[in-house]
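step 3/5: co-fold with phenylalanine
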Amino acid sequence: MEKRSMWNSRLTFILAAVGSAVGLGNAWRFPGLAAKHGGGTFLLVYLLAMLVMGIPLLMMEVSIARKLRRGAAESLRGINKKFEPIGWAATSNAFVIVCYYSVVFAWVILMFINSWQFGSMTGDSEKASSLFFDLTQTTGAIEGTSIPGMVMVCLLVAWGLIFYCIRNGASSVGKVVKFTVFMPVLLLIIMAVKGITMDGAMAGIAQFFIPEMNALGDPGLWVDAIGQVFYSLSIMMAIMFAYGSYLDDTSNVAADCMIIAFSDMAISVLSGIVMFSTMGGTGMLDSITDSGIATAFIVYPQAIVNLTSIGWVNAIFGAVFYLMLITLAIDSAFSIVEGVSASISDKFHIKPRTVTLAVCAIAGLISMVFVTQAGLAWLDIVDSWTNQINLIVIGILECIAIGWCFSLRKVHREINRNSKKFNMPFWWFATSVKVVSPLLLIGLFVWNMITLFVVNGGNYGGYPLWAQIVAGWVVSLFVFISGFIIKLVIRHKKKSGYIEDEIVWED
Ligand code: PHE
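step 4/5: write tokens
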């Protein structure tokens, strides 16, 4: 077998993991959720959810993969042969996610290229908000099959960039993350300075930070905070297994994971400051929503054309905003592909580069569905199922597998193997993985099911039922049986001489 590619420094690993965690979710979902749930109150609950669930689970994935040196599927098989399908569920769910995440990435590129158009829209909010619809020709419903040429070009560029960044695994990722992690932070700081210096910005900032304590009793707040922590840290997506497997034995998982989680949170807060001050400054505080796509492509453009009375200045800020989103999204996008290809190449002993190319090609083809005129609607459905159902069920299964059917002491020893000042306390880790996280996730799952079936009568977003079955339920089914399909393939391959690796956890 080829030598596993490895991170060339501690910093590269931290940056790559931060790059994966920090994505579009920080820029548009986090501020929107904070707006919805009483500002500072949301921040508080988010921090709590990060401590009791996010951080322990992140440490768990990274340390297991470092120990076993395998991607998600084989790492879970190393824990117990029966758990391999959980790893494949995470892998195939990640595959589905990248099929549409790449399209959102392509849209961001499209808006960046077209941001000059904001120059002639000064003060015209209506025109600004329709730019996205004009460019993508999306109908917002399951209608329309044509693909606008320009969008197709952006999709190709998106996939080209993704492949370019991960063509050599950890070594090429290591090179690009130095740029793709610091650049968005720099751009966010520029935008924060512009935002804070506008009249009315303080009203926005106040809304973001000052807690409204009576919001604490709303279960919706807790559900959203837990969901956001889960989504934002890129756990249960096969990514942190892949990234952990490129670590060498001297790495300090406990400390590094703390740094990763808090950097992720800090960048969410920074994006919140940008969003709230800009919206306050342009008199649009009431327009902040928790729907990511709407914020980035419909609401924010309106703010852009009202930033100043000089067209080209606004256009430049528009370009800065979308460039920020490009650099934010790209390292999340390629991390998902990396997670998927690590699982596959470890299992089938195929060169990582070949697998990466194949994954990009196949996912690239599928992603074309989401750039058609009906694409936004398909994306909405798939996004809802992959995140509200699949991801959470995978989380529950992983917690049960590792918390209840394996030795938490062993995992904990791995986490603290090289720790210096900060040691992850065992009680914290064990209570989280064994009890708190699975319970929170089960609660989240039940809540989502009640919302889907009781509140909405089994109908998500008013799309036709057949579309929800195809893009929702069938996809979920595929995700959860993928491991068993792979088992059959392996059984077949064994007949022609394939030998499965023996993966053992040696103490
Ligand atoms: N954590 C990313 C974000 O906050 C989301 C993400 C990363 C989604 C990787 C998929 C894969 O935007």
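step 5/5: annotate
The first helix runs from residue 10 to 21.
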